[in-house]
From TrEMBL:
This is YkoF-like protein. Belongs to the UPF0045 family. It comes from Aspergillus pseudonomiae. GO terms for cellular component: cytosol. The lineage of its organism: Eukaryota, Fungi, Dikarya, Ascomycota, Pezizomycotina. PANTHER family: UPF0045 PROTEIN ECM15.
Amino acid sequence: MASSDISSIPTPAHCTADFCLIPIGTSSPSVSAQIADVQRLVEKSGLKYVMHSAGTTLEGPWDRVHQVIGQAHTILHQQGIVRIQTDVRVGSRIDKEQSFEDKVNKVRELLGKEFQPRKATALISSGSVAN
């Protein structure tokens, strides 16, 4: 980068972002209500997404994905949560389009018949995860 002006450097057009938002200092150790509010926002965003046990994966235009993560912070701050910690992992590539589903399916294809995923319900017993 020869120039010190970074304003002309574009962001990638598309990305996949996995984020885990953690409200800090709430009156309860449970944050499921806040996560449900974030999921409502994500659903309304129009982005492709999947919620999982440790966060949410978003897919779409770079700026929109990051905007939604910021909006998630804002809706929780508006509820009186003064501090939020979010871990974000972002991936982009320019050689081809590849969705998060494509990535998972490729690994499953490589595993072939040896891959027998356990159903999540089989792992959960009496509200706790079985070892």
